[in-house]
Design a protein that fits this description.
The chain has 153 residues and is mostly helical. Helices cover 73% and strands 4% of the residues. The structure holds heme C. Heme C binds next to α2, α5, α6 and β2.
Length: 153
């Protein structure tokens, strides 16, 4: 009677190992599944300083929206994150070091920020913040998408 019971236990152990192993195998050591992107210095330092300014810009945009200063919210988005920011970011040069899908997320983010800039102007006319907030969330969605997938060396 003992043998079938321990055999059943053994089966359970083997079965759970088979189920758990493939999931664990996809996770590299340290549990960080983001793709490493090699960005040479000083471009890496320049880019992450830019990132910190993006975060500051988002904070300043919220403050401007809360004060009803839609022109400022629009200008901050366009100049610091939107299509107009590309030149000052040296984006074309840096982009050539990034994987294609990462470049595309970056482009989507700049476009979304320029769309937000328009919605912020509209909010000044309609006095309805909701379309602007939706447009801003579309910007942040691209920040999140890139951070979830990539990191720098
Ligand atoms: C196309 C990709 C991409 C987009 C879009 C992006 N980031 Fe980043 N960001 C990165 C990467 C890569 C890092 C470095 C992460 C690492 O190495 O762990 C980073 C780092 C940062 C950091 C940390 C900076 C530091 O000093 O270490 C902040 C803050 C940040 N991003 C904010 C933002 C914000 C806000 C947005 C959107 C408005 C944004 N990022 C959009 C790729 C992106």
């Amino acid at each position: 009677m003992h043998l079938p019971v321990s055999f059943a236990k053994l089966l359970t152990i083997v079965a759970s190992a088979v189920i758990v192993a493939p999931a664990a195998a996809q996770m590299p050591a340290g549990g960080d599944a983001r793709q490493l992107v090699a960005l040479p210095e000083p471009m890496r330092t320049h880019t992450i300083a830019n990132m910190r300014d993006h975060l500051l810009a988002l904070q300043e945009i919220d403050e401007a929206l809360a004060k009803g200063d839609f022109t400022a919210a629009s200008r901050i988005a366009e100049e610091r994150i939107g299509m107009s920011s590309l030149k000052s970011h040296g984006a074309a040069h840096i982009a050539s070091f990034l994987p294609q899908p990462m470049q595309e997320i970056g482009t989507r983010m700049h476009r979304a920020a320029s769309r937000f800039a328009v919605e912020a102007q509209n909010a000044g006319v309609t006095n309805d913040l909701r379309p602007a907030l939706l447009a801003k969330s579309a910007v942040i969605r691209e920040c999140v998408a890139c951070h979830a997938a990539y990191r720098y060396h």
